Amino acid sequence: MILRVDGPEGVFDHAAGVAKKRGRAPMAVGSPMRIASVTKTFVAATAVLASKDGLIDLDQPIDQYLASADAETLGRAPFPTIRQLLGHRSGVRDYVDWRYYLLWDKRDAVTPGDALRLIKGRARTGDPGIKFDYSNTNYHVAALALEGATRASHRELLRARILNPLGLKNTSYPDEMAGEDPIHGYGGVLRPNRDVHYWRDAAGPDAGLRSTAADLSVFLRALFSDGGALKPVGDEMVGRALENKMRYQMGLGLEITTVTQSGAVFLGHRGDIVGYLTAAYYAPATDRVIVAHMNAWKRPLFETLVDELMALAQAPAPESASQ
């Protein structure tokens, strides 16, 4: 696993265990991690930034930006807005279901076109704006809408407007990396020790980015800390949050988690794909970032770890650090 706590008192980085069981290659704190759905926070920030630059309107129906064939796959009007896609209130069905797990060749990356084909002919989960329903398809559709509006791929927009300006040199999609990501993930419903490093399905705008703990820390601080380079973008992502569960609200590509006992708030996202678990959050009250990554599909253990990190991140800063 990889852990990072970044706060006023300094940075704590820690790695434990192995990145690859064969050969017992040790985990390293600077290794690029498969961050899964934390990718959604990057894509949502890209869309919000494009809207602030006047390139796209988050509140216009997406059929204005999509190719007609893609819009037809989503069914009849009313079509969702990009804001509804980013906040999982679109009514667009998730392509990730039991059919996907059983039938999709995990060695093949899922593209936006693939995601649409996987839901073609299937009913919506509801009309746009009515209810929260988490759907990975939303982010594939949002990427297509960004491309239609700007004539640039969401990857180009992400790199030009977020990654390069923030100096996030270790954040990229897998086919953009200089070599293989070194962390092998292990897990599966029936084979918990299976090496799933060769799985390439999670490679798109819903779950495909690789990043380091240090890059995630810089990104979250840019979005949510006072004076952060992307603070207006982060405020927009938080500003229209809607309740999902008792402890959680969903913003735009953003989970807003409130700790029950203390009321402390954390802004960020979790990522969960077979073999890899990630959490990255910013705590506004204490100006701390926490990042956790585990290359084993052990959700209860990981949730306990994240809860412990959140407890640590709520602690008052040492007096010397706050002066």
Rg over CA atoms, rounded to whole Å, is: 19 Å
Distance between the termini: 33 Å
Largest sheet: 8 strands, antiparallel
Helicity level: 25-40%
Overall spatial form:
globular
General description of the model:
- The chain is α+β, with helices and mostly antiparallel strands.
- 33% of the residues lie in helices and 17% in strands.
- The chain is built from eleven helices and twelve strands.
- It has helices spanning 39-52, 68-73, 82-86, 98-103, 112-119, 137-150, 154-166, 213-224, 231-239, 299-314, 319-322, and strands at residues 2-7, 10-15, 18-20, 25-26, 33-34, 210-211, 242-243, 248-250, 255-258, 265-273, 276-283, 288-294.
- The strands form three sheets. It has an eight-stranded antiparallel sheet, sandwiched between helices. Strands 3-4 form a two-stranded antiparallel ribbon. Strands 5-6 form a two-stranded antiparallel ribbon.
- A hairpin with a 4-residue loop joins strand 8 and strand 9.
- Helix 1 packs across helix 7 (154-166), helix 5 (112-119) packs across helix 6 (137-150) and helix 8 (213-224) crosses helix 9.
- The protein is globular.
- The model has no long low-confidence stretch (mean pLDDT 92).
Q: Which characteristics define this entry?
A:
12 strands, alpha+beta, two-stranded antiparallel ribbon, eight-stranded antiparallel sheet, 323 residues, 11 helices
Provide a concise account of the structure shown.
With 323 residues, the chain is an alpha+beta fold. The chain contains 11 helices and 12 strands. 48% of the residues are buried.
